[in-house]
Write a structure and sequence with these properties.
The protein is mainly beta. Among the domains are: 95 residues, Sandwich (Immunoglobulin-like), CATH 2.60.40.10; 91 residues, Immunoglobulin-like, CATH 2.60.40; 91 residues, Immunoglobulins (Immunoglobulin-like), CATH 2.60.40; 82 residues, Immunoglobulin-like (Sandwich), CATH 2.60.40; 97 residues, Immunoglobulin-like (Sandwich); 89 residues, Sandwich (Immunoglobulin-like); 88 residues, Immunoglobulin-like. The protein contains 11 helices and 88 strands. The chain has a 7-stranded antiparallel β-sheet, with no helix packed on it. Strands 2, 5, 6, 9, 10 and 11 form a 6-stranded mixed β-sheet that branches. Strands 13, 16, 17, 20, 21 and 22 form a 6-stranded mixed β-sheet that branches. It is found in: Membrane. May play a role in anteroposterior axis elongation. Keywords: Developmental protein, Disulfide bond, Glycoprotein, Immunoglobulin domain, Membrane, Repeat, Signal, Transmembrane, Transmembrane helix.
Length: 1187
C-alpha cells in the first residue's frame, strides 16, 4: 500500500481533474495499522509496552481504550510518541486499580478512525495444587503412576523429586509428562520412596505433598492377565499451536502393545506427532486438522485380546477472514452493502464498527448475518467501516471506506409531513412538495418503522410524483410508528423530511391466553394464565372471561375478571371428576376468540398421601421444540417416585406417558409442528398412587418458512450412514445439503430403539458437525436414526430413517466344560461348551496349548476354530510330556477371558503299548495342575467284571439253544418264527412279531437258526450233513455259490414285485443277525428262473475315526466327533464262505416289515456286497442294522 507522502501530489492532481464536476469527492489515503497490540502476561511491578503504530494521511491521533472505555493517562501509564502504550509498573490489585483487561488503540485522521485488535493483559499467577500425588503400592515389575495438577498463568513447568532429590529421567522406563503425570514402568525395589512434584513459573515455585511408593515382591507365577488401560486419554481442548499430550497406560500379562488411531480412520500426522514413554501420544504445534477422536488400543501380542479407550481433541482457532469488505463510492440516497465472512473455532461473532464505534441496526442501517446494508445514504455515512470477528481465542478486524458523492442540484426535503390514524392497521400520511427544485422530482419514497424497541426493520414504499399522500395499511394494532419522506430526482435524492410518529388504534385480541390448571385439594381447580404477547394482544386487555363445566354436563358457567388478574380458584367442585375450562380476553374494542376447552381431573377424595401438583412452566425454544420445567411444592411431604408427562396437540391424540425420574425438573419436547397449540399435563406419582396433575397450554411460534410461505424449508440431510462402533455406540455420518452456503448449520439427531413404547427413551442430540458418535446404547439392540438440520431459523424435515444394530458384548466368561481326550499316541481331542449366558455371541474360539517346558518359556501354540465348533484336535504331541490347555471365546468386539488350565499327560510309548487301546484319558475342568489322566484300579475292576458277566450270559444262551434243539429233534417239524433276539438284529417290530404269532399256530417263541424248517412242499436239511434242498418237485440241485456284487434296489420297486402271500422261505447265512436270505415263491422255482437280489444295509465294526480338527463338533457323551461322518462312514460287506445251513419260515407280512425297517437311505448311499448265492434259488438278501 503506498504511503501518503509518496502519492499525495499525484493523486490530488489526477482526482482533481477527473472529479472536477463532482465537488465533495476527496483523495482518501488509507488508514491502517503497522503494528497492533498483542496479549501480554506480566508479573506485578513489571514494565509493559503495548505496541500500536498507524499509517495514513497526517495528522493521526492515537488513543487507547481499556475494556471499551478510554484509558486515563498519568505518570505510570501514558502513550509514547509512536502510539504505543507504556505502563511503568503493572498493578494487580482488585478493582479499578488493577491493570488487567482488554486494551485497544484507536487511530484517527480527518477521513475516519480505525480500531485495533484486542490485547489481553494478565498477571502471572499460580494457585494451590488442585490434584496431589497419592501413595500407592505396586508389585515388582508393575506400573506406578503419580499425578498432580495446578493452575498457573503462564502454565507451570512440572518436575518430580524422589526422597527430596531431583528424579533422574534418563531411564527409558520413567516418563514425566508435561501435564504433571509421572509413569514408572517395570517397577524395581530401588524405586520405592517418597515422590512429590514441583511446579515452577516465572514468579514462584510450589511443591506438592509427598506420596509413598511401596514395592511388593513379585510372585513366581505370572498368570495370564487380560489387558487393562489404567490411565486412558482424557478429552482435551487446546488452542492453535499448543502441544497436547494424550496419556495411555496399560497393564497385562504378557505386556500389552499400545497403538493409536483416529476414529474417523484418517491418518495421524506423523510430522507433528511422536510417542512419549510406553504409549503416550504427543502432538506438537496443534492445528485444526488434528481435531478428532483418538483411540488408544492395548493388545496382547499374538492374540486378538485387546481393550480400547477414546478421547476427543478439540482445537480452538482464532478468527480469520474468508471474505473482506471492499471500499465503496455511492451517491446520496443510494444503498451500500458490505460483505464479511470469518471462520474460527468456536464460530466467531461478527460485529460492525463505524469510525471505531459499534453500529446498531436502525431503520436505514441493517445487519443481516455478517452483511452490513446502509439504505438512503446521507453525508454522515461517509466514514471508515470495520468488520470485527471475535471469539474466545481473539479478535480480527478488516476495514473499508464508504465515500458519499454529493450533488448541488438535489431538491430540498418534503415538508409539513403529518399522519392521521385511519384504523387499527392503517395510517394516512401526507406532505408538501419540496420548496427547491420540486419540478425535478420524479418520485417519493415513504419510509416507516416501529417507534418502540431496538433493531426494528424499516419498510420503504416508492410512489409517483403526482401525489402527496399515501395510506399505509399493513400496520399492527395499538403500535407507534415513525415516518419520513425522501424526494428523488435523476441526479440524486433530497434529504430526509422531518420524522413524524403516529399510533394505530386497538383491535380485539388475536389470541387467547395460555392457561394452566392445577388442584390444591380434591374440590378445587386453580386457573392461572400468562399475559398475551403484545404482538397478539392488539391493545390493552381490560377483561377476562372464564368458562367451565363438567365434561358430562352441557351447562356452562361463566365468570368475568378484570384485565389485571392472572389467576382464579374454582372451589366447591366434585372430586375425581373431569372439568373443561376455557378463557377469552377483551380490549376496549371487544372480545377476542376463546381458547379451546382444556380438561383437568380433580383428585380423588381419598388421595391423602398423593403428591401435590407441581408448578409447571412451558417455554417454546423454537418453532418445533418446547421446554417443560416444573418445581415441586417444598411443603409437600408425600414421597415422589417419579413424574409422568403427557402432551398433545389440540384436537389430536395424547402422547405419553413419558416416565421421568424424581430428580428431573426439566424435559424438552421435540418434533412438534409450528404455529400449533399444545396441551401439556404433568403429575407426580409414588408406589401408592398418582398425584395431583398440572395442566398447561402453550403455542409453538411460526417458522420462517411457515410464516412467509416464500422461503421453502431446507431439504433434510442426505446419505445418512450408520456403523456400529462398539456394543454401546454407533457412528453416524450424513451429507450436508448443497442448498445453502451458510456457515452455521446445526443438526438434531433422533435415536431410539426399534419398537419403543416409552417416549421418554427417545434421544435427541445436537451437533454442528456432519457426523456423531452416539454412545450409551444397549448391546445387540436395533436402533433407528433420523437427522434434521436447522439454519437461519429454518428446520428441515426428518431424513429417511436408518436402522442399525449395536455389536454384541465381548464374551464375559470363558468356555465351560473343557475336556481333553487322548485318542492317539500323539493326538488329543479337546472339547468344550460355549460360555454361559443366552446373549453371548461367539464367532471364534482360541485354543492355547503348550507343554510344561514351553509354558515356562511363555511359548504357546495357538489354534483357532469357528464359533459353531466346540471340538478340536491337538496333533503332534510328544510322548512323556504334560500339556496345558486353555480356551477363550471371542467375537468381533473382543475376546473373553481364558478358561482354567486343563492338563493332559501323554504317556511314553512303552506304557501306552502295554495297555491295549482304546484307553481315553478324559480330563475335566479342573483348577489343580496335578490331576493326571489314567485308568485307576477301580475302573479296571469294573471293566473286568462287566466282561465276565457278558461272557457268562453268552454261554448260558448257547447252552439253552443246544438243549432246545435236541428237544425238538424228536418232534414233528413245524413252521417257526424268528426269535425276538433275531428280530432285534433285523429291526422287526414287536407288533409285526405278534401278528405272525396269531396267524401261525404253534410257532416256537425262541427258535434259532440251527432248527430245520418245513413249509408246504419244501424241506431244508439243516443238520449239518448236507445242504440239500427238497421242494414239491423233488430235490433241488445246488450249484456252486458264486460271489456277486449287488447294489441296493429301490424299496418301492421291491414292494411292487413282492408276491402277496402268507408264507415265504427264508434261508439265513451262517452269521446270525447279519444277513437274512429270504426265498420267495408261490410255486416251485424252475431251474431257469431268474433270481432277484436286494441288499438293504450293513454296518461295519465300530472303529475309531477322527475327522480333521477344523471340522470338529461335539458329539455328546462319547467324546468322538466327525464333521462329515455321513460321507466318511465305511461299511464292510458280509460274505459267507460256507453253504447255507439253515432255513426259517417267515411271514410275508413280517418280511415286508423287515424291508421297511431296515432299508434306509439306500437311494443316497448304494453299497456293494459279496454274497454266496445258489444259482437256482431266487433269494433276497436283507441286512439288518443293529442299533
Amino acid at each position: 500500500m503506498p504511503a501518503a507522502s509518496r502519492c499525495m501530489a499525484l493523486l490530488r492532481a489526477l482526482l482533481g481533474a477527473l472529479l472536477l464536476p463532482m465537488p465533495g469527492v476527496w483523495c482518501f489515503s488509507e488508514l491502517f495499522f503497522v503494528r497492533e497490540p498483542q496479549d501480554v502476561t506480566a508479573s506485578r511491578k513489571d514494565a509493559v509496552v503495548l505496541d500500536c503504530q498507524a499509517r495514513g494521511e497526517a495528522p493521526i491521533t492515537v488513543t487507547w481504550l481499556k475494556n471499551g472505555g478510554k484509558v486515563s493517562e498519568n505518570e505510570r501509564i501514558y502513550t509514547l510518541s509512536n502510539g504505543s502504550l507504556y505502563i511503568s509498573e503493572v498493578e494487580g490489585r482488585k478493582g479499578e486499580q488493577s491493570d488487567e483487561g482488554f486494551y485497544q488503540c484507536l487511530a484517527l485522521n480527518k477521513y475516519g478512525a480505525i480500531l485495533s485488535q484486542k490485547s489481553h493483559l494478565t498477571l502471572a499467577t499460580i494457585s494451590a495444587f488442585e490434584v496431589q500425588p497419592l501413595s500407592t503400592e505396586v508389585q515388582e515389575g508393575g506400573v506406578a503412576r503419580f499425578t498432580c495438577k495446578i493452575a498457573a498463568n503462564p502454565p507451570a513447568v512440572v518436575t518430580w523429586e524422589v526422597n527430596r532429590t531431583t528424579l533422574p529421567l534418563s531411564m527409558d522406563r520413567i516418563t514425566a509428562l508435561p501435564t504433571g503425570v509421572l509413569q514408572i514402568y517395570g517397577v524395581e525395589q530401588k524405586d520405592a520412596g517418597n515422590y512429590r512434584c514441583v511446579a515452577t513459573t516465572i514468579t514462584s515455585r510450589r511443591k506438592s505433598a509427598e506420596a509413598t511408593l511401596n514395592v511388593i515382591p513379585a510372585s513366581d507365577l505370572k498368570p495370564f492377565h487380560k489387558p487393562a488401560i489404567i490411565a486412558g486419554p482424557q478429552n482435551v481442548t487446546a488452542s492453535l499451536h499448543q502441544t497436547v499430550i494424550l496419556e495411555c497406560v496399560a497393564t497385562g500379562n504378557p505386556k500389552p502393545i499400545i497403538s493409536w488411531s483416529r476414529l474417523d480412520h484418517k491418518s495421524i500426522d506423523v510430522f507433528n506427532t511422536r510417542v512419549l514413554g510406553n504409549g503416550n501420544l504427543m502432538i506438537s504445534d496443534v492445528k485444526v486438522q488434528h481435531a478428532g477422536v483418538y483411540v488408544c488400543r492395548a493388545t496382547i501380542p499374538g492374540t486378538r485380546n485387546f481393550t480400547v479407550a477414546m478421547a476427543t481433541l478439540t482445537v480452538l482457532a482464532p478468527p480469520s477472514f474468508v471474505e473482506w469488505p471492499e471500499s465503496l463510492t455511492r451517491p446520496r440516497a443510494g444503498t451500500a452493502r458490505f460483505a464479511c465472512q470469518a471462520e474460527g473455532i468456536p464460530a466467531p461473532k461478527i460485529s460492525w464498527l463505524k469510525n471505531g464505534r459499534r453500529i446498531h441496526s436502525n431503520g436505514r442501517i441493517k445487519m443481516y448475518n455478517s452483511k452490513l446494508v446502509i439504505n438512503q445514504i446521507i453525508p454522515e455515512d461517509d466514514a471508515i467501516y470495520q468488520c470485527m470477528a471475535e471469539n474466545s481465542q481473539g479478535s480480527v478486524l478488516s476495514r473499508a471506506r464508504l465515500t458519499v458523492v454529493m450533488s448541488e442540484d438535489r431538491p430540498s426535503a418534503p415538508y409539513n409531513v403529518h399522519a392521521e390514524t385511519m384504523s387499527s392497521s392503517a395510517i394516512l400520511l401526507a406532505w408538501e412538495r419540496p420548496l427547491y427544485n420540486s419540478d425535478k422530482v420524479i418520485a417519493y419514497s415513504v419510509h416507516y418503522m416501529k417507534a418502540e424497541g431496538l433493531n426494528n426493520e424499516e419498510y420503504q414504499v416508492v410512489i409517483g410524483n403526482d401525489t402527496t399522500h399515501y395510506i399505509i395499511d399493513d400496520l399492527e394494532p395499538a403500535s407507534n410508528y415513525t415516518f419520513y419522506i425522501v424526494a428523488y430526482m435523476p441526479l440524486g435524492a433530497s434529504q430526509m423530511s422531518d420524522h413524524v410518529t403516529q399510533h394505530t388504534l386497538e383491535d380485539v385480541p388475536l389470541r387467547a391466553p395460555e392457561i394452566s390448571l392445577t388442584s390444591r385439594s380434591p374440590t378445587d381447580i386453580l386457573i392461572s394464565w400468562l399475559p398475551i404477547p403484545a404482538k397478539y394482544r392488539r391493545g390493552q386487555v381490560v377483561l377476562y372471561r372464564l368458562s367451565f363445566r363438567l365434561s358430562t354436563d352441557s351447562k356452562i358457567q361463566v365468570l368475568e375478571l378484570p384485565g389485571t388478574s392472572d389467576e382464579y380458584l374454582l372451589e366447591g367442585l366434585r372430586p375425581d371428576s373431569v372439568y373443561l375450562v376455557r378463557i377469552t380476553a377483551a380490549t376496549r374494542i371487544g372480545w377476542g376468540e376463546a381458547s379451546l376447552w382444556t380438561s383437568h381431573r380433580t383428585p380423588k377424595a381419598t388421595s391423602v398421601k398423593a403428591p401435590k401438583s407441581p408448578e409447571l412452566r412451558l417455554e417454546p425454544i423454537n418453532c418445533t421444540t418446547i421446554t417443560v420445567q416444573w418445581q415441586q411444592d417444598s411443603d409437600d411431604t408425600a414421597a415422589i417416585q417419579g413424574y409422568k408427562l403427557y402432551y398433545k396437540e389440540e384436537g389430536q391424540q395424547e402422547n405419553g406417558p413419558i416416565l421421568l425420574d424424581a430428580s428431573d425438573l426439566e424435559y424438552t419436547v421435540s418434533g412438534l409442528d409450528p404455529r400449533r397449540k399444545y396441551h401439556v399435563r404433568l403429575l407426580a406419582y409414588n408406589n401408592m398412587e398418582e398425584g395431583y396433575q398440572a395442566d398447561q397450554t402453550v403455542s409453538t411460534p411460526g417458522c420462517v418458512s411457515v410464516r412467509d410461505r416464500m422461503v421453502p424449508p431446507p431439504p433434510p440431510p442426505h446419505h445418512l450412514y450408520a456403523k456400529a462402533n462398539t456394543s454401546s455406540s454407533i457412528y453416524l455420518h450424513w451429507g450436508k445439503p448443497a442448498f445453502t452456503s451458510a456457515q452455521v448449520i446445526n443438526y438434531t439427531i433422533r435415536c431410539n430403539p426399534v419398537g419403543l413404547q416409552n417416549a421418554s427413551l427417545v434421544l435427541y442430540l445436537q451437533t454442528s458437525e456432519t457426523h456423531m458418535l452416539v454412545q450409551g446404547l444397549e448391546p445387540k439392540t436395533m436402533y433407528e436414526f433420523a437427522v434434521r438440520l436447522h439454519v437461519d431459523q429454518l428446520s428441515s424435515p426428518w431424513s429417511p430413517v436408518v436402522y442399525h444394530t449395536t455389536l454384541p458384548e465381548a464374551p464375559s466368561g470363558p468356555p465351560v466344560g473343557v475336556k481333553v481326550t487322548l485318542i492317539e499316541d500323539d493326538t488329543a481331542l479337546v472339547s468344550w461348551k460355549p460360555p454361559d449366558g443366552p446373549e453371548t455371541v461367539v464367532t471364534r474360539y482360541t485354543i492355547l496349548y503348550a507343554s510344561r517346558k514351553s509354558w515356562i518359556a511363555g511359548e504357546w501354540q495357538v489354534l483357532h476354530r469357528e464359533g459353531a465348533m466346540t471340538m478340536a484336535l491337538l496333533e503332534n504331541l510328544v510322548a512323556g510330556n504334560v500339556y496345558l490347555v486353555k480356551i477363550a471365546a471371542s467375537n468381533e468386539v473382543g475376546e473373553g477371558p481364558f478358561s482354567n488350565v486343563v492338563e493332559l499327560a501323554v504317556l511314553p510309548k512303552e506304557t501306552s503299548e502295554s495297555n491295549q487301546r482304546p484307553k481315553r484319558l478324559d480330563s475335566g475342568d479342573s483348577t489343580a495342575y496335578s490331576d493326571y489322566y489314567h485308568l485307576d484300579q477301580k475302573s479296571m475292576t469294573g471293566i473286568v467284571v462287566g466282561v465276565c458277566i457278558a461272557l457268562t450270559c453268552i454261554l448260558i444262551c448257547i447252552l439253552i439253544l443246544i438243549y432246545r434243539s435236541k428237544a425238538r429233534k424228536t418232534s414233528a417239524p413245524k413252521p417257526v418264527q424268528q426269535s425276538t433276539d433275531q428280530l432285534s438284529h433285523t429291526n422287526i417290530s414287536l407288533a409285526s412279531a405278534n401278528e405272525v404269532e396269531k396267524s401261525i399256530d404253534g410257532i416256537a417263541e425262541n427258535a434259532e437258526s440251527l432248527l430245520p424248517m418245513i413249509v408246504g412242499n419244501s424241506f431244508i436239511d439243516a443238520k449239518g450233513g448236507s445242504d440239500l434242498i427238497i421242494n414239491s418237485y423233488g430235490p433241488v440241485t445246488k450249484a456252486n455259490c458264486k460271489k456277486r456284487w449287488l447294489f441296493f434296489q429301490d424299496t418301492k420297486k421291491m414292494k411292487t414285485e413282492e408276491p402277496q402271500r402268507r408264507f415265504v422261505q427264508a434261508v439265513c447265512l451262517y452269521q446270525p443277525g447279519t444277513t437274512v436270505l429270504i426265498s420267495e415263491d408261490d410255486s416251485p422255482s424252475s431251474p431257469g428262473q431268474q433270481s432277484n437280489f436286494q441288499v438293504p444295509f450293513s454296518i461295519a465294526a465300530d472303529t475309531e475315526h477322527s475327522a480333521n480338527s477344523e471340522g470338529s463338533h461335539e458329539t455328546g457323551d462319547s467324546g468322538r466327533f466327525s464333521h462329515e461322518s455321513n460321507d466318511e462312514l465305511h461299511l464292510s460287506s458280509v460274505t459267507s464262505a460256507t453253504p447255507c445251513a439253515t432255513s426259517h419260515f417267515v411271514s410275508s407280512d413280517l418280511g415286508k416289515n423287515v424291508m421297511n425297517s431296515t432299508i434306509s437311505d439306500s437311494k443316497e448311499s448304494p453299497l456293494l456286497f459279496a454274497t454266496d448265492q445258489p444259482a437256482t434259488s431266487p433269494l433276497q438278501i436283507h441286512s439288518a442294522v443293529q442299533n
